[in-house]
Amino acid sequence: MDAPKKRIFSGIKPSGNLTLGSYIGAIKNWVALQDEYDCLYCVVDMHAITVRQDPALLRRRTLEQLAQYIACGLDPERNIMYIQSHVPAHAELSWVLGCYTMFGELSRMTQFKDKSRKNADNINAGLFTYPVLMAADILLYQADLVPVGEDQKQHVEIARDIANRFNNVYSQTFTLPEPFIPKTGARVMSLADPMSKMSKSEQDGDGCICLLDKPDDIMRAFKRAVTDSETCVRFDKENKPGVSNLMTIYSAATGKSFEDIENEFAGRGYGDFKAAVGESVVELLRPVREKTEDLLKNKDYLEQIYTEGARRAAFLASKTLDKVYRKVGFVKQPRI
Ligand code: AQP
Fold first, then answer.
1. Ligand 1 centre and the CA of 77: distance in Å?
2. How far apart are CA 260 and CA 233, in angstroms?
3. Which of 35, 57, 128, 269 is most deeply packed, by most CB within 10 A?
4. Is 93:46 a contact under the CB 8 Å cutoff?
5. Please, which residues have CB within 8 angstroms of residue 127's CB and are 6 or more apart in sequence?
6. How many helices (H) and strands (E) does the chain have?
7. What is the pLDDT of residues 149-174, one digit of tens each?
8. Are 191 and 208 in contact (CB under 8 A)?
9. The pTM is what?
10. Cα of 251 to ligand 1 centre, how many Å?
11. Which atom of ligand 1 is nearest to the CA of 148?
């Protein structure tokens, strides 16, 4: 008999339009993993409200994000695809796990420090306990692997620490998850400021490419991308962050190695290079944009996908939550 497939959980918060960073750093890898693993891919809307959101926009983006998952190649039959707030077990487990998480360890999370700096007028408790909800997302499904970018690695580590603590107190309950970090394209930087990450919630100006951007806008952003005062296309993250970022993007879009790219543009200026990167991204995103537009015309189909996804996720989640409630000493719930 075949060994059971390992399980993967991952999600993206609909805090802005999906970017080229979300695609290269997360979704592209998810697509590659769906054959080999048993995957749950979630739109984590509960995480999005740690930063103030416009309600109508959040609702729209949540559905658009689900449509974009499918348009990028995620198959709703093979994967469980759903919206986090549709499965109450995420919030329920999060409360329990919060009682097994230390104030000190949450205070050390770099994302909390970053986001507190950026949202100084709204440093809410949700922003602080975000990693506990993320631990619940992962541990509910007994996920073995969590594909994340470098910046989220610390959150998977804390999920592991919480799981370990709980298992030590009550006997084996949770699988200890491992971060799964892709070898290339792990971090896509802003085109306008290659020292900062390309982020969904910072989409002003030409630094950010969104999956639904039109070809002209994409080409314009790449033409304006910040490089350096040399003219040589060479991968050197420290001294040439702009060019190295463009090489990472070009490599992810075309499958070419950094060496191939250096050879292709040897003796040619940055103008040619930037145009080639822009064109490769236009072609990469064209089918995603067209398919998303089609899917968004069929809201009934999307509703069918997220309803079925939530049903399948809730079934798996209830098994873990029942076990946890029993172990911590809650009286078995009556049917109400
Ligand atoms: N620029 C990026 N390069 C590589 N990977 C990225 N990811 C996001 N941006 C990049 C990866 O996408 C996954 C989901 O991200 P998320 O939305 O849950 O959290 P995030 O990393 O905080 O994303 P953003 O775009 O920066 O959102 P905001 O601006 O709202 O905080 C993760 O695996 C992440 O690494």
1. 25
2. 11
3. 128
4. no
5. 50, 51, 112, 115, 116, 119
6. 14, 5
7. 777 889 999 999 999 999 999 999 99
8. yes
9. 0.94
10. 19
11. 33
